[in-house]
């Protein structure tokens, strides 16, 4: 059987997936005579962008980012804002933290206790009654206590009157600031959770409370804290380490470039570098986790579990637990075994993938501008992400302070109603519900704009996903056009026109914006459904049963498979758009039929090539990650002195690792798109030509022979 003969069963299969391409002497690659495709989708896409811009402007007018930067007391005043009475009071203090275990916390998203701004947190145990006894002997005790009271508070009130007026807390306990809020200063003593060396304490109302109750209340508060508050600490770390983060990302960019250049000359040798490097980096992680685990076994710092310590002010406490390092070690061991097994079982297909990468290296060498294109994609994606974040912040901080009735005991018929703190004590609500409070709840309003803010958040997220996928689709189509131009040039590089990448990019923008928007819209809708599913899972977590968990797991799996299948089909559709200039649906159909007519070659080449490139991405991100870890943990003093005043060293570390992976992904995706485009063109080439003098193949003889050989081996085994 020669290269051009096809088995009978293969021929019958091809009839179900369209007619093969026929020889066309005028076909020279991407067609020049085109027209606009999917115009309706293009118009809808442009209208959505205009609406997105208008939404950003309206949110900018109504929003106030200060509301995200400063905690707010019960009167709606910012803590620590310059030019206000609270300028030097940067920390939020809760009168009775134990009330934060009330069920109304989840209903109102606010702890049902008075909150004021203070300059520092309490450092000792003291009740209001004890302070009054000490006040008769030394009035300085009141001066220490009053900083945790309202400005109208007096030291001579009875406990009953104090509870009615709600001017002071009935008790204070040792605390420390966390996320600009006073939280209990927990510690461990002989393996027991304590606060101020005490297990129990007086609550100021004549009762005795345990540290466990206080921990549960603190965890209840933490559930209400926005990621915006955590962002303040993260922002401080970024402000300290941004220079080093940029250096790490620049090193990742240079390393990715070096790998891409070396792939052209030593692809086989470089694959072994990828393999040994990835196995070595994961092995280093396993060794480090084992060292930490054994050290904690020999010198335990705590016998508590993750559940025991709960939400802590010092996140590094989690790394003092044996369970943390043991879990990380097991995860890394599983990953190591998976990588080794894949290398063993895919060794033959990896050889074919390496040859494809060599062919891709030649294409990139003749079209070097493709190596610069990831920078443009990165800039466009950065603009989309920044605009989405800014719009989301301004939307979240739009409106005026809204106050709600909060009943500490939860027995008020007026609970959760809107109120006015200025006149609340004179209203019927205060008389009907003794002890009820009129506290700040959130920022909002009754205007049409404020009523639709949740809808605007959904629109902001959806258009963001659409834009992100459109930018990726635009890059894939432009690269596909450039590499298709390379493939269909008979005499390389003489027949390659000038500036093939910029020509392909211009064609994609001018003629196929609608088609690219159509394909990216499908991906955005699937991603939106996944986000909605995760949101419902989060809201219904407490009411889950075994059946609902099983159904949610199945839905996640189905959506993941659907998203990846659509992404694969979209990439090949964009290649057909770049070559023939047809609409999205026609291109997707042609790509699908072409792949199904050559399904054996697809099984040999496609995903294996992605696996080889994935090893390169892991190697780049892992190498930079190890260096960043040693640097930010002060373990490279010989080379450079890392920053010493970090809240969380993992913030810049994870940023460098994730950024390095994205940079490597951007560069290696050029290779992935190149290989996929060459493969699609190769399948077309086999159908159009027969290798004769009149109909010569455009592919190199070496690659042609290997791909045909790999295709025919399964057929012979089948026969």
Q: Can you describe what's shown?
A:
By secondary structure, the protein is mainly α. Among the domains are: 133 residues, no CATH class; 238 residues, no CATH class; 44 residues, no CATH class. Helices cover 62% and strands 7% of the residues. The chain has 23 helices and 12 strands. It has a two-stranded antiparallel sheet with strand order 1-2. A two-stranded antiparallel sheet has the order 3-4. A two-stranded antiparallel ribbon has the order 5-6. A hairpin with a 5-residue loop joins strand 9 and strand 10. Helix 12 packs across helix 22. The longest helix is centred in the middle third of the chain and has 72 residues.
Salient structural properties:
about 725 residues, mainly alpha, two-stranded antiparallel ribbon, about 60% helix, disordered C terminus
Brief rundown of the structure:
The protein is mainly alpha-helical and 719 residues long. The protein contains 23 helices and twelve strands.
Topology record:
Elements: H1 8-15, H2 39-62, H3 66-69, E1 91-94, H4 104-108, E2 115-118, E3 126-127, H5 128-135, H6 140-146, H7 159-165, E4 171-172, E5 175-178, E6 181-184, E7 186-189, E8 192-195, E9 200-202, E10 208-210, H8 211-224, H9 227-298, H10 306-309, H11 322-345, H12 347-366, H13 373-396, E11 400-406, H14 428-432, E12 437-444, H15 448-451, H16 453-487, H17 500-511, H18 513-539, H19 546-580, H20 584-597, H21 599-632, H22 650-688, H23 701-718
Antiparallel strand pairs: 1-2, 3-4, 5-6, 7-8, 9-10, 11-12
Helix pairs in contact: 2-13, 2-16, 2-18, 5-6, 9-11, 9-12, 9-21, 9-22, 12-21, 12-22, 13-16, 13-22, 16-17, 16-18, 16-19, 16-22, 18-19, 19-20, 20-21, 21-22, 21-23
Subcellular location: Cell membrane
GO molecular function: antiporter activity; choline transmembrane transporter activity
Region (Disordered): 1-24
